[in-house]
Amino acid sequence: YFKPEARQILVEIIDKYGADALRFSLMVITAKGQDVHLAESRFEMGRNFANKLWNATRLVLMQEERPGPVDPAAMAPEDLWILSRLQRTVVEVTRATEARELTAAALAACHFLWGDFCDWHLEIAKERFRADPAARRQAVSVAAHVLEVGMRLLHPVMPFVTEEIWQALRGGSGEPSVMAAPWPVPEADRVDTVVEADFEVIRAAVRLVRDLRAKANVLGKVRLAMTVSSDTSDTASSVDRHRGLISRLANADLLDAGIDLPQTPGTAAGVGEGLKAYVAFEGAGAADVLESKD
User: Fold this and answer.
1) Best exposed site among 150, 235, 254, 260 by fewest CB in 10 Å?
2) pLDDT tens digit sequence for 112-127
C-alpha cells in the first residue's frame, strides 16, 4: 500500500528512470514487514542495472560473428566458469521465486548478471572478440546464451528490458517472446567446482592489484610487476594454472608465484583471503602506498 503522496513519487520515478528500474529497486529495497523511504537515489541502481544489461547486449551483437550453438569442445576457462555460475544462479533464483522471496531472487539474478557476467566474463572475453572467427564465434555464442537464460530468470522482475533484449537476441529457444520461453532448468553437468575455485583466486589476485593501483593513483594502462604468495597449495595451483589470465587482467608481469613467499623490498603488499600480492610500482604514487603499509 502506498500513500497518495508516495504514488506521485512513483510516477515521477517511472518518468525519470523507467518502470523496470522502479520494479527492480522496490524489490531490492523492500523487506517483509518494513516501511520503505522512497528517496529518489535508491532507484538509480535499477536504472544502472538496466543500462548495464543493454550495453552488454550491444557489445555481443556488434561482433561480426552471430551467436550460434555453444561448442562444448571449444570451451575457454572463462566459458566453463560462467556456465557453471549460471547453473547455480538458475537454482538460486528458482528456489527464491518459488518461495515468493522476490528480493532474494532479484538480488541473485543481479549479482550474477552484473557482477559475474558483465564485470568479469565479458571483460575477459573481449580478447576473443578480436581473435580468429572460430574463437570469436564461441565467445559470442556463450555470451548470448548467458544473456538469454538470464533474461528468462529476470523477466518477472524487469519485464520490459528483458523483452527488448530477447527480441534483439531472438532467443535461442525459438520463442517469439521471453514471456513464452520456458523457465530455465539447471544443467548439473555444467557445474565445475574446480574452475569456480580457480576464478575466486583469479579475481582475488586481480582485485588486490587494482586496489593497490587505486591507492597509488597509477593508471590501469601502466604495466606493473607483481608476485603472488599463496597460503595453500590449492590456491598456488590455481594461480599457476591461470598465470596468463591474472597477468592480463591485472596488467602486470607475474614474476613469481608460490606458497608463503616473502615480500620483496620496495613493493606494496595487498592482503586477501588465502593470498597476498606484492606489486612493484614505477612512477608517481608508489611512495604513498608504501608509506600506508608502515
Assistant:
1) 260
2) 999 999 999 999 999 9
If you search the block for the grid coordinates 591485472, which residue do you land on? 250
SS3 (DSSP) at 227: strand
Amino acid at 193: T
What element of type H or E holds 282?
none
- Residue ranges of alpha helices (H) inside 30-76 are 44-61
Closest CA to 26 of 114, 107, 109: 107
Q: In the chain, count H helices and then E strands.
A: 12, 4
Residues forming a β-bridge with 124: none
- The per-residue pLDDT for 293 is 43
Beta bridge partners of 280: 225
The amino acid occupying position 122 is L
Q: How far apart are CA 204 and CA 226, in angstroms?
A: 14
Whether pTM > 0.70 for this model: the answer is yes
Query: What's the gap between Cα 167 and its chain centre?
Result: 23
- Whether the CB-CB separation of 87 and 191 falls below 8 Å is answered with yes
Return d(Cα 267, Cα 278) in angstroms, integer: 6
Give the bridge partners for 278, in sequence order: 227, 269
What span, in angstroms and rounded, lies between the C-alpha atoms of 171 and 149? 9
**Which of 111, 102, 95, 117 has its CA nearest to residue 23?**
102
Q: Which amino acid, 13? A: I
Q: Which 3 state secondary structure label does DSSP give 217?
A: coil
Residues 262-294: pLDDT tens digits? 998 889 999 998 999 999 986 534 444 444 443
